[in-house]
Amino acid sequence: MSQKVLAFEKKTLTGNITVPGDKSISHRAVMFGSLAEGTTKITNFLAGEDCLSTIEAFQSMGVFIQREENTVLIESEGVNGLEEPVQPIDLGNSGTTARLLIGILAGLPYHFTLYGDDSLSKRPMDRIANPLREMGAKIDGRENGRLLPIAVRGGHLSPIDFKPPIKSAQIKSGVLLAGLLTDGVTTVEEKTKTRDHTENMLQAFGADIDVEGTTVKITGNKKLTGCDIEVPGDISSAAFFLVAAAITKGSHITIENVGLNPTRTGIIDVLKMMNVSIKVVAKRTIGGESIGDITVQASQPKATVIEGDIIPRIIDEIPVIALLATQATGQTVIKDAEELRFKETDRIESVVNTLSKLGATITGTKDGMIIEGNTQLHGGVTESYGDHRIGMMIAVASLLTDEKVELHDDECIAISYPTFFEDLHYLISN
């Protein structure tokens, strides 16, 4: 396990950067390109460990995928060209790969075995396995298919009208992808709209999909056709630098070409709610996804209550929002975020433990946390818990301390942001 000592003489961030490609979109581009007939070219692909797990999964099923840095070329014969893999498929640490891939495999007339690392093996898969069983898939694994390793015997599915019991784009996407390989119309009706990258991209590949409010319908067994996908910068990665600039004196940064999908821009709304000076400019649309440049400068944030429908739009950003709240005036309350307990780690527990070690006054609740503001953080020994979002939060927190912060297991940050520390040092050195 590696460790990094974080001690910065200069705390001000200035300059312009771009962040790596969106992780959610990179995953889906590889998946849909592998299901489509013809050639798919993906640019600004996130070459992080999770997305590479998706590439390797489809290569094991016979798809030709070639990657050169952040460009990926896929040549596929479509669904009928997929093969039954000889070996079990290693998903690494990627929950997105696991849940979406299970949906795809459920529609294929083969047998598959899936496994992952220790962290992924603790994350619940029954939330996607249960609706797929209703459609006719045979899925089994540890604890009756709740945990990896999981075996899937697919094919011969029936459509379903599904109402997800929890707010999760992964569950929605997994059911839609199974519906893509099923005769008839599959419907997913959400209570609150979650990330819609799957719907947007399926349309780009030619799927017969209809979206009305929070209801999505997909007609199965329609051929997908390869296309070019340009992946926008990941707003979840950008969030760490947006907060860093907001809470460090004299900072002023611009992050260019960031994805601005409305289901993902909750971090911008929260920063505005908390009185952070933030502007979004140069908006444009590429491949059905909005992108733009985001500028943030140092501010005095104010406490707020974060709850309800905005939670699915900020679920990956809550760790760094909690850090922001330690510097806000007043008490910040985060509610309705119980899904955090089922991420790479229990993010409520890990955020509370980590920030407490650094001097924050923070209390965990069943579905969120309560954070006191105007807190002077100090140095200490921390660990990422193998969670990239926690690791990046710690790095940003070290900008607020006079003493050094020791971060154990920093290599997990490469899961979503391989060049994170390079970009951090660039913004500090300007």
TrEMBL record:
It is found in: Cytoplasm. Pfam families: EPSP_synthase (PF00275). Keywords: Amino-acid biosynthesis, Aromatic amino acid biosynthesis, Cytoplasm, Transferase. InterPro entries: Enolpyruvate_Tfrase_dom, Enolpyruvate_Tfrase_sf, EPSP_synthase, EPSP_synthase_CS, RNA3'P_cycl/enolpyr_Trfase_a/b. GO terms for molecular function: 3-phosphoshikimate 1-carboxyvinyltransferase activity. PROSITE patterns: EPSP_SYNTHASE_1 (PS00104), EPSP_SYNTHASE_2 (PS00885). The keyword Lipid metabolism does not apply. It catalyses: 3-phosphoshikimate + phosphoenolpyruvate = 5-O-(1-carboxyvinyl)-3-phosphoshikimate + phosphate. Phosphoenolpyruvate binds at residues 23, 95, 123, 170, 347, 389. The active site is at residue 316. Residues 11-424 form the Enolpyruvate transferase domain. Belongs to the EPSP synthase family. This is 3-phosphoshikimate 1-carboxyvinyltransferase.
